[in-house]
Amino acid sequence: MVSSKAQTVSEYLDELSPERRREIERVRDAINAAMPSGYREGIGYGMIGWVVPLEDYADTYNGQPLAYVGLAAQKNYNALYLTCAYASPERSQRLKDEAVAAGKKLDMGKSCIRFRKADDLPLDSIAREIASATPAEFVAIHEAARQRRDC
User: Fold this and answer.
1) CB-side exposure of 19: number of CA atoms within 13 Å?
2) Which pLDDT value is given to residue 84?
């Protein structure tokens, strides 16, 4: 699945094969356990996402809620989008360093970590990164990145 037409997280998960669903649910459970209050889980951009709701931050370039984390089953892999790390070079480097220390090799682009199984990910490090910023703190990180033209 590249982009889903699902309207809810349950519908999204129901579209997946049992194997893919198991891996996505493991990562989703870790994300939800770490997620600070104030973010909203739902479907956006054809994937599961956690966002800063528009009523809390409406100054986005596209009128959509500010994305914090995304989780998707792509055609040949699963993807975890961590804009919380992408918006900050320090956070991105910390995540990479912790992955190496955990013995994990990240297949990582700017904000996307590609994986096949949840065990491929340094879930403890990812959970710490996700837990490290409230919505207000993430908005400040995002705005600083925009001023630097990093995103």
Assistant:
1) 4
2) 74
DSSP string, 94-140: HHHHHHHHTT---EE-SSEEEESSGGGS-HHHHHHHHHT--HHHHHH
Residue-number span of the structural domain to which 43 is assigned: 9-146
Q: Is 3 part of a structural domain of the chain?
A: no
The answer to whether position 1 is within a domain reads: no
pTM of the model: 0.91
**Percent of the chain residues topping a pLDDT of 90:** 72
Structure confidence at residue 149 as a pLDDT band (50, 70, 90)? low
Q: Does 32 fall in a domain? A: yes
- If one counts the domains in the chain, the total is 1
Whole-angstrom distance, CA of residue 21 vs CA of residue 73: 9
